[in-house]
Amino acid sequence: MSHIIYILNSKKLNRYYIGYTTNLDLGFEFHKNAAPNKFTANASDWTLVLNFYCDNKTQALSIEQHIKNMKSKIYIENLLKHPEIIDKLLTRYKSDCQI
């Protein structure tokens, strides 16, 4: 099973969305057809700007939470510009992965 962190961008909202899925196509489709009460329903122009694989669910959820806790557009843009940050996150949260 794949464990994928993904980041979507909406130019309309000028916002990013960070998520976790085991099926990237299904996850992206979910956001494109989001229910009206979901955050991603506020725009129809979501594009996938980054995705990367984790070793397991624990690692993926830890990294997803780390990125969300940063609450920073600049941090996300640095992830896009500097892939070595992703490598550091994967290494940092590897010890959390006992599943």
TrEMBL record:
<protein>
    <submittedName>
        <fullName>GIY-YIG nuclease family protein</fullName>
    </submittedName>
</protein>
<comment type="similarity">
    <text>Belongs to the UPF0213 family.</text>
</comment>
<feature type="domain" description="GIY-YIG">
    <location>
        <begin position="1"/>
        <end position="77"/>
    </location>
</feature>
<dbReference type="InterPro" id="IPR050190">
    <property type="entry name" value="UPF0213_domain"/>
</dbReference>
<dbReference type="Pfam" id="PF01541">
    <property type="entry name" value="GIY-YIG"/>
</dbReference>
<dbReference type="InterPro" id="IPR000305">
    <property type="entry name" value="GIY-YIG_endonuc"/>
</dbReference>
<dbReference type="InterPro" id="IPR035901">
    <property type="entry name" value="GIY-YIG_endonuc_sf"/>
</dbReference>
